[in-house]
């Protein structure tokens, strides 16, 4: 009897454990299924790509204590901060920068090798976004004759449009045409940029549409821009700007008609002498104007109002104009970033109300950084200087005549590259590889150059790190030159006031990369990330195909 009772108890226990095990497995499988569904269905209603033109990474940290809680700090504290983010190619300039961010690759693949470059097939200089096949909208000038036809691959915005069967909208906005055209890609519903001079209007190209939408016409007619025709004073007391150099110094450029580069800047008084509305580009008011227009686009185009993901690409260009004029250590650059911070807060608050907090995703980065003014570096005993390319030309031409009997062997010099005439070299019965190397060795004799590489080296080798790696990523076999030069660190080919960029040096490559919002983890990383990683990261989050030239990799730490 007792044995039967024990057997019955054991059977009951086994049944209970078996039931719990099956139930647990089902629950685990259901949870696994649920997690897969969540991972595939985290597409936000809107992606907002923000590019800050000429933003160094240390602008985040240097001015951090002055920022409000709702702009840069919101992205840093509630989003993901890639602290060691770099451009992995040169030249580091606006056209290639925007193209690389949105294509997930480098100039070696997407083909935008500069803002302007020498077209060696047609023997002309070309601009990265110009296209005479289209007409201007919103201006009677040629300012709107633009398209992305020189961009060889698709963008993340193109891929999103195709993924949604063209139902998701893409709107791209910037003061600079190239800052809107290249992010918008080949399929954007619209790209808009600002035409200054005596017009002060947002314009576009017939590549995108037959006429400007009514809301754009209305915005231009509202004279919204007029409120920025005012004196530029500091947002805070200038004595609080201890993170920047002296306001009165010799390292800054002047507006036409100014006697000093110090605050305040009398914008109304300088208006006519500085291209009328063009002057706003060189002030933080240009960023405010861009924010105004972006907010209007958000509302008028009903972006982020349904389950189909839209894309709003915004580039803040005034930071670049101000940096070029005043330099990275100026009171003006600090004030520009504090005011941009307020504009970002205004934009994010509008996104919260129009789209919904947690319903949109933002990334913020830069198209390049900038060098400190070499004249300033020299004064504090840091090696730096200026390359007088014109003074080198005379000696270089003598070298060409002596070795080849003609200077015509060099067709063009642009973006620190020499383009050679291959027909003349063949007629002289010379080997192109030998000529490239001889000229590269000659360039190294000039003190301002730190390195020189040949097109042959770019073709024949696979570089994985350092300056050669960066140059190779910027080298397009059909479009780039025969000899590539690198200036010494701290040296620039520029005038002696203000900052510039373009080199493969770390001060031009290190830029912020912040992610925030739907599908994004909170955190940071010191692992090296590269600019070409942005597009595949966003594509992975959205669950869409990568742009077709992608060479970057998703930053897995960023994504939930």
- For this entry, what is the oligomeric state of its chains? single chain
Q: List segments where confidence is low: pLDDT < 50 over at least 5 consecutive residues.
A: 9-38
**What would you call the shape?**
globular
Give the strand order of the largest sheet, numbering strands 1, 2, ... along the chain: 6-9-8-7-10-1-11-18-2-19
How far apart the termini lie comes to 60 Å
Please tell me the overall pLDDT.
94
Short description:
This protein has helices spanning 2-40, 58-62, 72-78, 94-103, 107-110, 156-163, 178-184, 214-221, 267-270, 285-300, 318-326, 331-356, 374-379, 389-404, 422-427, 432-443, 455-460, 466-473, 506-509, 534-542; strands spanning 46-52, 80-82, 85-86, 116-119, 124-127, 136-137, 170-174, 190-195, 201-205, 310-316, 360-366, 385-386, 410-414, 417-420, 449-454, 483-487, 491-492, 513-517, 523-525, 529-530. With 560 residues, the protein is α/β, with parallel strands linked by helices. A hairpin with a 5-residue loop joins strand 8 and strand 9.
């Amino acid at each position: 009897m007792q044995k039967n009772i024990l057997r019955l108890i054991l059977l009951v226990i086994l049944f209970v454990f078996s039931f719990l095990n099956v139930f647990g497995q089902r629950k685990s499988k259901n949870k696994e299924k649920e997690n897969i569904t969540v991972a595939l269905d985290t597409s936000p209603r809107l992606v907002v790509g923000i590019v800050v033109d000429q933003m160094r990474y240390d602008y985040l940290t240097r001015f951090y204590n002055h920022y409000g809680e709702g702009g840069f700090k919101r992205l840093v504290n509630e989003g993901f901060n890639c602290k060691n983010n770099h451009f992995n190619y040169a030249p580091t300039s606006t056209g290639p920068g925007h193209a690389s961010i949105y294509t997930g690759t480098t100039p070696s693949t997407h083909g935008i090798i500069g803002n302007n470059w020498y077209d060696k097939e047609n023997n002309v200089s070309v601009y990265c976004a110009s296209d005479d096949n289209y007409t201007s909208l919103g201006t009677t000038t040629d300012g709107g004759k633009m398209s992305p036809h020189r961009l060889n691959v698709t963008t993340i915005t193109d891929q999103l449009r195709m993924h949604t069967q063209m139902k998701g909208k893409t709107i791209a906005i910037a003061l600079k045409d190239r800052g809107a055209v290249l992010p918008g890609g080949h399929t954007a519903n619209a790209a808009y940029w600002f035409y200054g001079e005596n017009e002060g209007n947002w314009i576009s190209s017939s590549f995108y549409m037959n006429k400007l939408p009514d809301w754009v016409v209305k915005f231009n007619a509202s004279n919204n821009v007029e409120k920025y025709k005012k004196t530029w004073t500091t947002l805070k007391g200038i004595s609080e700007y201890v993170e920047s150099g002296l306001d009165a110094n010799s390292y800054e450029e002047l507006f036409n008609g100014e006697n000093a580069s110090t605050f305040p800047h009398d914008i109304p008084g300088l208006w006519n002498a500085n291209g009328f509305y063009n002057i706003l580009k060189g002030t933080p008011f240009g960023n405010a104007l861009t924010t105004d227009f972006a907010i209007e686009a958000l509302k008028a185009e009903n972006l982020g109002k349904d389950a189909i993901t839209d894309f709003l690409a915004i580039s803040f260009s005034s930071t670049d104009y101000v940096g070029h004029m005043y330099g990275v250590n100026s009171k003006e650059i600090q004030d520009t970033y504090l005011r941009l911070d307020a504009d970002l807060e205004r934009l994010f608050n509008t996104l919260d109300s129009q789209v919904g907090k947690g319903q949109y995703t933002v990334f913020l980065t830069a198209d390049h950084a900038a060098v400190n003014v070499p004249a300033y570096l020299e004064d504090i005993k840091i090696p730096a200087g200026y390359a007088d390319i014109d003074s080198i030309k005379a000696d270089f031409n003598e070298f060409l005549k002596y070795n080849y009997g003609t200077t015509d062997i060099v067709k063009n010099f642009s973006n620190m590259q020499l383009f050679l005439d291959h027909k003349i070299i063949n007629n002289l019965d010379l080997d192109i590889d030998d000529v490239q190397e001889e000229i590269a060795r000659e360039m190294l004799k000039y003190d301002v150059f730190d390195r020189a590489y040949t097109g042959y080296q770019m073709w024949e080798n696979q570089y994985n790190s350092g300056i050669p790696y960066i140059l190779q990523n910027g080298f397009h076999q059909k479009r780039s030159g025969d000899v590539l030069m690198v200036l010494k660190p701290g040296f620039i080919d520029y005038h002696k006031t203000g900052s510039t960029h373009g080199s493969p040096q770390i001060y031009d490559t290190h830029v912020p990369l912040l992610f925030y919002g739907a599908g994004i983890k909170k955190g940071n990383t010191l692992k090296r990330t590269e600019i070409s990683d942005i597009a595949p990261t966003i594509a992975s989050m959205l669950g869409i195909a990568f742009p077709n030239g992608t060479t970057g990799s998703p930053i897995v730490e960023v994504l939930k």
